[in-house]
Amino acid sequence: MCLSPCVRILLVDDEPNNLQAYRRILRRQFQIETAASAREALEAVRQRGPYAVVVADARMPQMTGIDLLSEIRQLAPGTVRIIFTGNADQQTVVDAFTRGQVFRYLNKPCSPRALAEALQAGLAAYARQAAKSGSRSTKSETSV
Amino acid sequence: MPETPPCRVLYMEDDAAQARLVQKCLEREGYSVDVALDGLAGLGCYGEKPYQVVVVDQTMPLLSGLEVIRGMLARGPLPPTIMVTGTGSEQMAVEAMKLGVSDYLVKDLQGGFIRLLPLTIGRALAQQRLLEEKQQAEKDRKRMEQELFQAQKLESIGQLAAGIAHEINTPIQYIGDNHHFLQDAFADLAALMSLGDRLLEAAKQSKIAEDLVRQLESKRNAIELDYLTQEIPKAIRQSLEGVERVASIVGAMKEFSHPGCQEKQAVDLNHAIQSTLTISRNEWKYVADVNTDLDPLLPTVHCLPTEINQVVLNVVVNAAHAVADALKARQQTRGTISVRTRRDGSWAEIRVEDTGTGIPEAVQSRIFDPFFTTKEVGQGSGQGLAIARSIIVDRHGGTIRFETAAGEGTTFIIRLPIEGRPSPEASTPAASVAASS
Asked: Which one of A18, A19, A25 makes the best mutation probe of the B interface by having the most chain B beta carbons within 10 Å?
């Protein structure tokens, strides 16, 4: 059950070892859910969203992280978007901000502290924006 | 005109007076002249010092001009050599030319041939220079061909670099995260154990305080001991997997970035193919499943390992790109690349089959041309298959061909002689590669 403002975070990565590792280091500080593909992530957003923050790996098969975040922007415009990439070329950065409209951009490898800071900042941004719009983020929370 | 230092001429002639005349004439032209008055002495002089030009009279005592020339040949390649014959002895001159003599002069009774000598010598020297330039050009061409191979190899590694960086960064990410987890988990466990030790002490003295029991239990719950028990081994195992992954990528890269030995070696093709697939993983893993059917009984093949790696890499990357293009057109999610090796008599065969777009008939005859590419600017210079053909066909005596069906896919078939080609590579590169440099 999510308290308002929502603090649930969705991590999306096609590498299962990454998802398990994130969960291990973040479980105490944050409410983490994971998805192993863009398709799973979209399903999660539709059925169990909205999330306060979604973090997506940039390079995934079938649908890239940036395309996924663009989709999520349509589905849940309030959700804060963060892209996570091991490929730090300029084009990816440009795409992330123009097409993905991301809040933050993280490079791999990324220390747990940097990841946690980004997530905290994302949660704060979500809370601020939810308060401003006056909408209650609990409206569609029916399950944990 | 002779070069500095003075050009050294050896003049063999049994007529001493005529020899002196020739010597004076040539020295006036700036040559330095040694005279020998018979063939044997002449051959002896030739053996002692280097001469840029040798002039030999056919009729001499002890050894004739032809015999002297044969003697010179026994020592190595002829320097520019001119034969002087009497009239009616042109047959001798022809014999001499067949042996490699540059030119001949016919001795006239008045000794007028002496005036022609400097010109003839000059021509012979010019001929020699041209020959040396040609040999140098050939050496340069070979060196540039080598540099072109190296450049293409680096280009392909450069294009893979972003993908390789991602492949390495991914395991590094979770290895790091897992170790932070292990660090915290260990601290938690240490605290729990320390409480446990206190309980143990108290138990020994039969002085178990309720408070201590409560503390221990509470700590056990706080650190989520069951969770740690389950997750710690997994974190360790997955981290070790990650370390192996990075090591194999780095190992594959090392094999590729060697400048390449020029000597053929016994190469395990199956291992080379595995390295190639590792290093190119990021190019194909999102678009294709890769199957390998590598004959475990395939013998080692006598070949240049770095060059063969490069050929397989070029073909595999092409296959991955073809599949990626096809997926877009067909709206599918994944294609297939199959790599097979087998022995066929004295040949080793490598087949790379993809379910990509196939090669359209219009371009089939051009795909091995240097710099021909159907890709966009910045996606590759089009040298991959040209270089592949040059390596397989010219340097290994093998074959490379393809079978294709538009819209269905392509199979590249590479055949290499297992024992290697017996003679060293002839200097006949694919003419197209030379033309491109």
From this structure: A25
Interface test mutation site (partner A, options B160, B164, B174, max chain A beta carbons within 10 A): B174
CATH class of the B260-437 domain in this structure: alpha beta
B166 to A60: CB separation less than 8 angstroms, yes or no: no
**Residue A61 burial (CB < 10 Å; 0-12/13-18/19+)?**
middle
Residues of chain B predicted below pLDDT 70: 1-4, 87, 259-261, 376-381, 422-437
pLDDT on residue B430:
41
**Yes or no, beta carbons of A109 and B172 under 8 Å apart:** yes
pLDDT digits (tens, 9 = 90+) for B7-41: 899 999 988 998 999 999 999 989 999 999 988 99
DSSP assignment of A34-76, as one string? EESSHHHHHHHHHHH---SEEEEES--SSS-HHHHHHHHHHH-
Kindly state which CATH superfamily the domain A8-133 is placed in: Response regulator (3.40.50.2300)
**ipTM score assigned to the predicted complex:** 0.79
Query: Can you give the residue ranges of every domain in chain A?
Result: 8-133
Cα-only R_g, chain A: 14
Interface residues on B facing A, Cβ-Cβ cutoff 8 A = 162-163, 165-174, 176-178, 180-181, 184, 231, 234-235, 238, 241-242, 282, 285-287, 333-334
* Superfamily the domain B8-111 falls into: Response regulator (3.40.50.2300)
